[in-house]
């Protein structure tokens, strides 16, 4: 058995390495085997699973070998962050195709995005391959053509079987997977963004563990992953998306049913039936057209109806274009799909709408605390310690910056304590004393 790369006679060879060959890793191996080319090195966790491949003890050894141009990261979710950071920071550039989700937290996604910005010599694509399922791709094209008009509502239903067994049962726990809405549903949140042509603002979700995994115990712990949920996503252009997830619905004709409604018409996609239906308001029910969606490029159907094969075609094409075109699914796409999922998980926990900004705040707060620590040389000004005695020692520019940062952090707290409020009042009082010279303070804030 060999892993190969698609190549025309004159096309340059692209050598692949795969980190993690569980279920999805093997899926990638099969897809690569259906592309034309030559053998490439592979990393496996259990060498007994595969023969005929170059085996490494870990991703560090693979990167140091110099044998790969591109790396597919298909290890468990909670390992993505460190592996990605190691690849991005390696002296030799390696292009990356990382399985969804990008990372399990928004903060880790942000760090990966920031690190990748420093490497213009590598391409990073996120494995949100549902975009390429023929009926979904056809519906995306229909929406982009304007046939449906301005999209106002997106409804996605996934009724399917429970989570499969994974290596060491890592996918049974939120701390490893990021939660069901991150692990499974980032695909659908990505599609919602595509259909709405907008970015998410806030999320409301309701979900529970009602049927699956309730009688399972691993190392004394019961799984905490939800098996059903409703999720509402509001976008910045006023459109809305709704996800209906059920993972104990094996009796469904279709696993995914997608509905996109604009002010002119409606489009639907059904998987695995591979049917697309399109109708306009003016035509009514009799005007609905049914289309069979196929893609003749697919040489291997695999676990995702050929979408993983098309994903690899797109990834390989982007690599060969050498920066002339970015990845079809970039890091921002990966980050926002995770952010919506995290917001949904948090919404279930708190029983309220959760903003996307709120999910990113812990990352922002951490960075601000680091900046404050460097500026003021205090232990933790971001935690609102009683620092009134230190206020008089601050330069005007530092005082202004401190005021703005503390004000923003104060507004982000649900119920600030009296100590926090008193500290902020002390800061405000000090500022008021200096109001006579406010113009000079602001001027110095820019000069310093």
TrEMBL record:
It comes from the Eukaryota. SUPFAM superfamilies: NAD(P)-binding Rossmann-fold domains. Residues 14-127 form the Gfo/Idh/MocA-like oxidoreductase N-terminal domain. Residues 142-355 form the Gfo/Idh/MocA-like oxidoreductase C-terminal domain. One of its GO terms (molecular function) is nucleotide binding. This is Uncharacterized protein.
